[in-house]
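Summarise this fold before class:
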Amino acid sequence: MKKMNEKMEIVEIKKDGNWTNGRIGRLYFTVRHFDEGSVFGIQKGKISCMYVWEKGRLLRRPVIKYDRGWDQMPKSKEAKKAYELLLKKYN
């Protein structure tokens, strides 16, 4: 497991319209974000979809899943940190 005192930062791998894919430490993410907030967004913000998973585990349970509503909230320290970084950048 990644040590939490190591710096975690967003590395964007691909952008396609409103979708951005990338990684944060050992976690991978896909985020759908818009120019303006919405009632469907996280905290009524710009992110309407957020999927975060460990490499090789997308088909298993993601560590974060939001698709116009919460399916899986972040629980681990690593997932919470990734969530904070994604909110700060895209929401």
Observations:
- The first strand starts at residue 10 and ends at 16.
- The CA atoms of residues 65 and 72 lie 5 Å apart.
- The chain has a mean pLDDT of 89.
- The chain is about 15% helix and 40% strand.
